[in-house]
Design brief:
273 residues; alpha/beta; Rossmann fold; seven-stranded mixed β-sheet; two-stranded antiparallel sheet; 11 strands; 38% helix; 22% strand; globular
């Protein structure tokens, strides 16, 4: 089976992940064991989806993100290593912002950021928002599998800050977001697996690609406590423009952190006491 799948998909990694998902066991333990009829059927369906060009993450139906195993499908973006870095930067900010922090995750999608924060910060409480009811359904499913930390997450439907209750104004220690930041003219340059399968509404911001970043950065100061911090994922080429937006919005301490390959990725803006 292994050799046949590798040959069909042209990827040993894809073959390994599909067999492990279907058989519920590590690849190495299945190399010489027979596969059940049910597992073989599951493998066949996943291979067919992958052969059609569907991303492996959607074909498998789940993907790892930091310490979590998340359900993912076409309703949400696929969790990426760049966003894992953004979460790491957000956690660094929380260390300096006191106990029992209130955190807002804008555009939560699968819930990857929000769930990671409550999983890794035992006293954090997170509001996770999204304009897409479909995306929130995925986040809710992931929340159901989180256990006790799930009690510290609230999901809210709406566009950015419109989803939040007004009493949170000035009370949020950290705002974090992975918003759309692709420009409309850049869509044709996206890999087919992204352009043809992932939700465009979660990818494309508008003509410049900075529309949603600009909105979040401009509105964040009204919601942040003092001290407070904002962490936003951006495209590398947007670093200078995003930094200028943060300064213009009143953030006094601004920098951009790199991703795993050294590209500018996480805009950080801080409000002092």
């Amino acid at each position: 089976m292994r050799i046949a799948i590798e040959r069909e998909l042209g990827s040993a990694d894809d073959a390994r992940r599909i067999v492990e998902e279907a058989c519920g066991a590590d690849w190495a333990t299945r190399l010489s064991e027979p596969v059940s009829e049910r597992a073989a059927g599951y493998v066949e369906r996943m291979v067919e989806r992958r052969r059609a060009g569907e991303p492996l993450q959607y074909a498998v139906g789940r993907w790892g993100f930091r310490h979590l195993d998340l359900l993912v499908d076409h309703r949400v973006l696929i969790p990426r290593p760049e966003t894992e870095v953004v979460v790491g930067v957000a956690l660094e900010q929380l260390i300096t912002l006191g106990r029992d922090p209130t955190v807002v995750d804008l555009g939560t999608g699968s819930g990857a950021i929000a769930l990671s924060i409550v999983h890794e910060v035992p006293d954090a409480h997170v509001w996770a928002t999204d304009a897409s009811a479909d995306a929130l359904a995925v986040a809710r499913a992931n929340l159901a599998g989180l256990g006790a930390p799930a009690t510290r997450v609230r999901l809210a439907e709406g566009s950015w800050f419109d989803a939040l209750p007004s009493e949170l104004r000035g009370q949020v220690q950290l705002i974090v977001s992975n918003p759309p930041y692709v420009a409309a003219h850049e869509v044709d340059d996206l890999p087919p697996e992204v352009a043809h399968w992932e939700p465009m509404s979660a990818l494309v911001a508008g003509p410049t690609g900075l529309e949603d970043v600009e909105h979040i950065v401009a509105e964040a100061p009204a919601w942040l406590a003092r001290p407070g911090a904002l962490v936003v994922e951006i495209a590398p080429h947007q670093a200078d423009a995003a930094t200028a937006l943060a300064h213009d919005s009143g953030f006094t301490d601004v920098d951009v952190r790199p991703d795993l390959v050294g590209r500018p990725r996480a805009l950080v803006g801080r409000m002092k006491r």
